[in-house]
Amino acid sequence: MGTSESYISFVCEKLERFGNIRSRKMFGEYMVYLNDKPILTVCDNTVFVKKLPQLSDIMKNSDCGFPYDGAKECYILDIENDGLVEEVIPKI
Known about the structure:
Layout: H1 5-15, E1 21-26, E2 29-34, E3 37-43, E4 46-50, E5 64-65, E6 74-76, H2 82-88
Antiparallel strand pairs: 1-2, 2-3, 3-4, 4-6, 5-6
């Protein structure tokens, strides 16, 4: 299915308050960067965040999935949950 341009724009807009946000199309999907650091993968209109130790408590109730074949399992970030995004992004 792939990620739509409107969805990646929406994701980037939700993150603008954290710093310089940009996205880059890679392998037909997207990587999102905060201040030039890769922080999120967006595939099939789903936002994935790496399973980092500092996120385990915050994301313990979140769904997990694989952004693409061969990828490690990641947390699925509900980008519309402003409270969760506020907790997760500074810890990445």
